[in-house]
Amino acid sequence: MSKLSIRFYKDREVRAIWDEEHNHWWFSVLDIVGAINEQDDHAKNRNYWKYLKAKSKKENNELVSHTTQLKLMASDGKKYNTDVISQAGVDKLAKAIRNQQAMDFLDWFTYSDNTIDGQSRKKAYTLWESDLVADKDVGKVKSLQQIHAYLFGGLYDFAGKIRTKTIAKGNTLFCLAEHLHNYLKIVEEMPETTFDEIVDKYVEMNAAHPFMEGNGRSTRIWLDLIFKKRMKMCVDWSKIDKKEYLDAMIASHTDSSRIHALLKDALTDKINDRETFMKGIDYSYYYEQEE
């Protein structure tokens, strides 16, 4: 069971682990309890879960039967046996708590994977097993289009297609549509042999923003492919704070030093580690969630 994932509910992590034998996810009970109760104290969450277990046994309901123990990574970097619950059990857990916060969590949990982001993230997970981008195409615009088409095919009718309209986000205006194709040719030809060159190329691709939606999620995967090919490294995105990343990317239009520093500190040689990849996808999608 090495396939791990992190969901984010109101900026709180809910860890999950994939069960290959039974083909489903298990979710951390204490993470769910903490998310629902907006409680960061591990001991309080543990005591509350003990109370719920005792209550469920007294009422003779099936809550505990949907749980087991599996090893999950803790904040100290070590793995510990942790109570986890099946997807069906999450429904029973929320109903056992019986407050509006629990119902709000259940609504999010039930429908979050049915959104465009949810469906796209499922596709992103399968990139681990795919040979989507040929080695010779890494770093080219073609490879970025392939990634975007893979993530958003069937979800957006423009999946993989270079935009023909000018777009902006907040106060940031991206490359004008009439100049985009020429700009992308320039970005594609930028060198990518050193760390600084690779990050500079990433920053310019972000400034291009070639698609109507889904640029960040696609381009972060594209960046990692370049790092893997050129440096035998990748980014451990879980080490990069959401606000720090977003602020650094906004600043990169005039000063890229902050994003250079963030990425450099998060580099790892774990390019063949499934857990690093899965966490990277989860954090990448988390960066795009609205506050």
CATH homologous superfamily title of the largest domain: Fido-like domain
**What proportion of the residues is helical, as a percent range?**
40-55%
CATH topology of the largest domain: Fic-like fold
Mean pLDDT: 93
- Distance from N terminus to C terminus (CA atoms, Å) equals 32 Å
Portion in strands: 5-15%
CATH architecture of the largest domain: Orthogonal Bundle
Sheet with the most strands, sense and barrel status: 5 strands, antiparallel
Q: Into how many domains do the coordinates divide?
A: 2
Radius of gyration, CA atoms, in whole angstroms: 21 Å
CATH class of the largest domain: Mainly Alpha
Question: What's the gist of this structure?
Answer:
Strand 6 (168-169) and strand 7 form a beta hairpin.
Could you list some keywords that capture this structure?
291 residues; alpha+beta; Fic-like fold; 2 domains; five-stranded antiparallel β-sheet; two-stranded antiparallel sheet; 51% helix
SSE diagram, text form:
Blueprint: E1 4-9, E2 12-19, E3 24-28, H1 29-37, H2 42-58, E4 67-73, E5 79-86, H3 87-97, H4 100-111, H5 116-125, H6 141-152, E6 168-169, E7 172-173, H7 177-188, H8 195-208, H9 215-231, E8 234-235, H10 242-251, H11 257-265, E9 267-268, H12 274-287
Antiparallel strand pairs: 1-2, 2-3, 3-5, 4-5, 6-7, 8-9
Helix pairs in contact: 1-2, 3-4, 5-12, 6-9, 7-8, 8-9, 8-11, 10-11
